[in-house]
Amino acid sequence: MEVEIRHLRIICAIAESGSLTRAAKTLRLSQPGLTAQLRRIETMLGGTLFERAAQGVRPTAFGELVLARSRAVLPAIDDLVFGLRASARNRTLRIGTVNAPLLAGLLTWLEATHPEAVVTTVTRGASTRLVELVEAAQLELAVVGDCPGFELAAGPGVVLQPVASEPVFAMMAVGHPLAARTEVTLAELAAEDWIAPPPDDDRIREYWTTIFHDAGLAIRVRHEVEGTVLLDLVLAGRGVSLCQATSRQSPGLAIRPIAGNPLWYRHLLAWHRDGPFPAVAAEVAEQARRAYDEASRRNDAYPAWLAGDSNRPNAPRHSR
């Protein structure tokens, strides 16, 4: 992870409140969640920012230095964003996405139905960041995702609209011994070296680890990378990984269902209550579902899974 503007805002909020508990309420986070984020920020910056005091927390000398620079930077960034937002609001639809298979189809529909607008896209590694950008009115729409038990939280200004849930599949090189199987088990995957993305605020890696732990197993991550590097290492036979069932088939890549369908991923849309999408909520959600259905044919494994035993377990209920 790299230091982002929101990390600076978190540091300032803690300093201004003088308490992790009060800062967590201001930021609409749980206290354990805020504590975990602070630890990650301190790791990234290379020093302790706050020390516990009788009445809460207070900045360390290093923390004072970071606070001084954060307070100098944030107002300029806010002015920049406000100016850009004002100039672009009436002519641009800004769309954010994680690794979403339905984005291309959704963009085609948006451009056809809003010919007067310039449709732009940005990507972020974690859905949590995209939801924050929607809440700050820096995006009109975001395609995001979460997992059962690790659902996205949104402020009162953001609507989260579920689109589809899909199983998580395993992927490996076609020459890997597990590629000869029609499906693989958690135990078989746990016995392999893994290639996995680093933990992030979306908590997907934590979800994977939890599912394996509940089965009495553990993931042995040998290579912690993401994006095309992750795919390259899988194709090179350096280990196994997990992917969305809608992942695109690549030459040399084997995508296999996991027995019992223990892992799931949910696609959602996020938009601001005061933005342009609430008025066409049903239509945009339907178009997203159609785009997802089209994407479900991007590899051979998922259509076969969908056409399989009708007694397959349904996606687990999400708590939100």
From TrEMBL:
The keyword DNA-binding applies. Residues 3-60 form the HTH lysR-type domain. Keywords: DNA-binding, Transcription, Transcription regulation. Pfam families: HTH_1, LysR_substrate. InterPro entries: LysR_HTH_N, LysR_subst-bd, WH-like_DNA-bd_sf, WH_DNA-bd_sf. The keyword ATP-binding does not apply. Coiled coil: none annotated. Belongs to the LysR transcriptional regulatory family. This is LysR family transcriptional regulator. It comes from Nonomuraea mangrovi.
